[in-house]
Amino acid sequence: MAANYFKPIWRFLIKDRAFSLLNMMGLALGICASLFILLWVQDEQRVDHFHSQGDRLFQVYSRNFYEGSVEASFATQGLLAQELKTNVPEIALASGFEYIAAPGTKSNLEAVGKTGKMLGFFAGSDFLSMFTYPLLLGDKASALSSPEGVAISHMMATYFFGSPESAMGQTVSLEGKEDLRVTAVFEDLPSYSSQQFDFLRSWAPFMTQNAWASTWRNASPATFILLKPDSDPESVEQKIKDFLYQYIDPQAGVRQELALQAYPSRYLNGAFKNGYPNGGRIAYVRLFTVLAIFILAIACINFMNLATAGAVKRAKEVGLLKTIGASRVSLAFRYLLEALVLTGAAVVVSLVLLFMLLPLFQELTSKQLSVPITTARFWLGLSGIWLAVGLASGSYPALYLSSLNPLRALKAKTAKGGAFFRKGLVVFQFSLSIILIAAMLVFQRQMDFIQHTTIGYDRDNLLYIPIEGNLITNYEAFKAQASAVPGVLSVSKMRNSPTYIEHHTWGVSWPSKPPGTTLSFTDAVVGYDFVSTMRLRLKEGRDFSRAFGADTAAFLINETAARAIGLQQPLGQSLGWDQRQGQVIGVLEDFHFNSMHHTIEPLIVRLDENWGWGTILVRIAPGQTAPALKGLEQVNKTLNPAIPFTYQFSDWEFSKLYHSEQLVSRLASCFAVLALIVSCLGLFGLATFTAAQRVKEIGVRKVLGASVMSVVYLLSAGFIRLVLLAILIASPIAWWAMNSWLEDFAYRIAIEWWMFIIAGLVAAVIALLTISGQAIRAAVANPVESLRDE
């Protein structure tokens, strides 16, 4: 019985090899692209979902209302974790969490004669009991209880001591200043953990080394809490909403609230809008999920188009089968089975392509993705895709072919409805392709705008060197020797890096400040020559200078700060910050010290050449990078011999701010091209069938004197009209989608009309090239051959 179905299917596929191969490759490319996207989406969705107590794990964030606006961030007070645990009965465990070295840099460690750079954090004693980072050795409840205790990763234990067992109880020197004792060894963190670190040390040293963290007016660390079983998160959130007012006095016009975000959702929903978690990487997950559906839809449409277009060739077959008694149900089942067989072959080919191209995709996405072939879920999902694609792409051709009238079918006449449906599918698939091309243009234009717009300082030839080891106390000597290196123009320092200044303060005061007014300032601590090294522009005033001893109590502010304070003549105005009282000596033109997702905030800058950590800034002359780096490495070897010389270029660090956007741009470009290729495969097949269907008409026209160009126009004009209609449909949809994406940027390009014209022209030109080959071939054919009746 089964042979009665499969033998005719096999004969048809072998007989029309070109049609079968074209259809299968279109489906295979579409399925393969969708599988790649779904692998990436699955990897994004699994981040931070491995913690066994994840349903009770939350991160505290602050929400601040002032002057008619609201802002939110994960920066909280250093004292908050312990106070929440003590005062809120529903909270079982709590921990602060903060970098040990400056954000983006690693700490220098030494043990048993070996040195290495490792990423570390301060964490509370409850931390390892809250998160599922399995301990290989040690007790998670006490590992971080003593100030000198340190928990290290399996990798770090192996690197320094050969094995986790040998590491326990050993001493590790941190930055050559502190000796830490290994109290625990944890398993290396998986790639799907948003937290990545090599070692943890206790919270007490953080509070001791950072006096500002002991006040309730300063915020920087993260705070995590674990609720007791059966606790209601909404109830706890209401309890902690006004928690800070137990320690600070309310101020008129200002409100500070605490709130909770479920930790497993933080990675994908890490952005804030109007003071609440809203958006983030989840937007890209949704975007690429839709993209996978788009590409699968385009591939299915190709199948439908090619199958219904081929109905002319199979019309007599249908007529004969119906004449000898075949029912419509049996015919529909036969052609549907044919679609499933072809789809099954496409799935097999797509898997081969998936494994072949996986290394390239891993490099493109910077992810270690793997195909979960050992899990039943993967094969069930793949079977679902096979059935869904097979049924979706084969249902209409099966119903269409089985519905043909036997008499008309034997005369090779088919209904016009099929042609109309095919045209609609062509418009739909090219609309999707044009949307993707337009999106690619907008992505690339925005990235180009970010990379090349004036950000207020010169990031070319600007070097970042972490302040570590002996440089903490020998900065002045380093600056003097580095300034003498050929190719080095100037040297300065700052607490963070210019790319990302993360510290904020509410504690800035000025004489005309209205009672009850609170204004959040981004704050920076810098060294001499900061303005010249950064090549910032002063709107008025001057940089910090050794010629003015009082500059240790002076301030620089940016234009936004001057406007926010309401100072018409800011120079000489008195400001107070961090128990310092001084005058404004300069106003900086606004510059970007964060990503362009955020507006420029009020900035206040003070001088402190003795600040113990952060970044050394080195300005290098153009074309002198190699000799300057060699000289700086020698200076570092002389003054800081125990620490390897490391550095980053400013433009590298700037690019990291837009890693997600750059990834989206690259993926959108690749998949837009792929979608267009798949669409054109279908268009090529349709053009082939159209030319075959009108072969006698073309022969008659040529006999009557029609030129090759007129025949080409005859065959091409209809398709080009469909593409033009697709442009009209796709353009407003693409504009809406891209405008929504650009809303996440405080500084953005304007969407121009020509972007959609280019997207449409690209699609039209490629479609025309696809069609014209078949059209020319039909037009130059010998009319004698085409008119000869078999």
Kindly list the characteristics that best describe this protein.
alpha+beta; 13-stranded mixed β-sheet; 49% helix; MacB_PCD; Macrolide_Exporter_MacB; membrane
- Major β-sheet, in short? 13 strands, mixed
The Rg value, from CA coordinates, equals 33 Å
* Shape, per Cα inertia axes: elongated
Low-confidence stretches: none
Strand content: 15-25%
Name the average pLDDT.
Answer: 81
Percent range of helical residues: 40-55%
Number of strands: 27
Instruction: Please work out how many helical segments DSSP would assign.
Output: 25
How far the N terminus sits from the C terminus, by CA atoms, comes to 35 Å
Please state the structural category: alpha+beta
Number of structural domains: 3
Provide a descriptive summary of the structure in words:
The protein folds into 3 domains: 1-47 and 271-414, no CATH class; 54-267, no CATH class; 462-656, no CATH class. The strands form 4 sheets. Strands 1, 2, 3, 4, 5, 6, 7, 8, 9, 10, 11, 13 and 14 form a 13-stranded mixed beta sheet that branches. Helix 10 packs parallel to helix 21 (659-693), helix 12 (328-365) crosses helix 13 and helix 21 runs parallel beside helix 24. The protein has 25 helices and 27 strands. The chain has 790 residues and is an alpha+beta fold. Residues 20-242, 434-630 form the MacB-like periplasmic core domain. It is a multi-pass membrane protein. It holds the Pfam family MacB_PCD. It comes from Parapedobacter koreensis.
